[in-house]
Amino acid sequence: NAGVTQTPKFRILKIGQSMTLQCTQDMNHNYMYWYRQDPGMGLKLIYYSVGAGITDKGEVPNGYNVSRSTTEDFPLRLELAAPSQTSVYFCASSSAGFWFFGPGTRLTVL
Amino acid sequence: AQSVTQPDIHITVSEGASLELRCNYSYGATPYLFWYVQSPGQGLQLLLKYFSGDTLVQGIKGFEAEFKRSQSSFNLRKPSVHWSDAAEYFCAVGAVDDYKLSFGAGTTVTVRA
User: What percent of chain B is predicted at pLDDT more than 90?
Assistant: First the structure.
């Protein structure tokens, strides 16, 4: 039981490039989330999903897209990367009031 | 919508001294309340949580927190701090009828010898 896994751990992007952050959970949770963490700001919700095929925007969705084709996977897509997207990204899943977080992806956009 | 305020950005405490981190939340109904700890470069570790029942909650690493509905607070305490407690601490609130977790901005704890 690996919990929530994220890849990659680190990535450097150039402005305008695109990439996908991968997130997988093996707990059969319906609810999954993407957060970004910036210094002094805590974690902000980007997108979330309440089940396969259903996604919705969080607080800071601009510049990102998600999809949820299976219960296990919840990838986050960055199109046209910008320096403002430099952050640490956490994926999470939840069930019955318990949240489980992945180890994070540190992304730098230069 | 729920929100969380952690009034203290940074706290410095001597090893062996007590620690209290403040957390105030805004939510209309009974919230789920959490404290997480994050060491530098690491992910989030759950310290403790409150759903209902006893308002004094015990967690891991010797931490406890008290839910005070009248003050909309969920402060975290530890009687005697160890150098390994130096980290960033986040309070979070979740809704009973919603599934999104909202975080405070965090409090950085420095432990001096």
Answer: 75
